[in-house]
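Internal tracking record. Fields below are filled automatically when a chain is submitted to the structure queue. Please do not edit lines marked as system-generated. If the sequence contains nonstandard residues, flag them in the REMARKS field before resubmitting.
Queue: standard
Priority: normal
Entity type: single polypeptide chain
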Amino acid sequence: MIVVVLGLFMAHTIEAWIWAMFFYLAGEHTEFSEAVYFSTVTFTTLGYGDVTLSEKWRLTAALQAVSGIMLFGWSTAFLVNVRAFFWRKHGIIHTPPHFDEEHQP
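SYSTEM-GENERATED OUTPUT FOLLOWS
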């Protein structure tokens, strides 16, 4: 389970860094560390506002925030399914019995 969590964390980190590289190469930030900071704050939807983009690129920050919140949502759903899979596999929870046709109302 910890491997799945670390894998998800790494995937989110890589995506935030890809966005940071985009903002850096677009000339929105003079230092890469500032681009990583802005990208991480935006990707996680914290949005401190201490570092901003020019008017020309503001919409991309909104797209990054939407992308981040969607991926965190999908990751949460994936993690819940993985947890349920391992619980069933190790007998921690049991799958409810399926009713056959004669037991259906």
